[in-house]
Every structure is written in C-alpha cells, then in structure tokens.
Fold:
Amino acid sequence: MLQSHVIEIDGAFVGAAVRLDTGYRFIATDIRLDELDGTTWPSLADVRRLAHRLFRTGSFAPPPAAAE
Structure:
C-alpha cells in the first residue's frame, strides 16, 4: 500500500506527497502548484519546502540575496 502525506499551507490543502522507492511524488490539488505536479523529490521536507515556495512566490527559485 502506498503511503501519502497531506501537504497544506496556512491550513489550505494544496496536494499530497506519495512515498515511492525513489522518493516522494507530489500530486497537486491547487492550480498554483501545477508546475510541481507529478515531480519526484528525495525527501518529504523537499516537497514541503518547494510547495511552500511555489505557493508563496510563484517560483521555485530562492529569493535573491540582499545587496551588501
């Protein structure tokens, strides 16, 4: 049986991470995360971090470093 984990952001269900032999596959339920849908990541923490980033900023890229 497959093991899955709910992915939510600020109490909103945005998808699920399904455990596979090779990592975690993300299944999006929120249109803002369609770009992440079907991708596989090595850890559940990776899926949660990237889903949160994409949901908040619309991009996978980390925020630019502050100018020194």
In short: The helical segments are 44-57. Residues 17 and 26 are 4 Å apart (CA to CA). The first helix runs from residue 44 to 57.
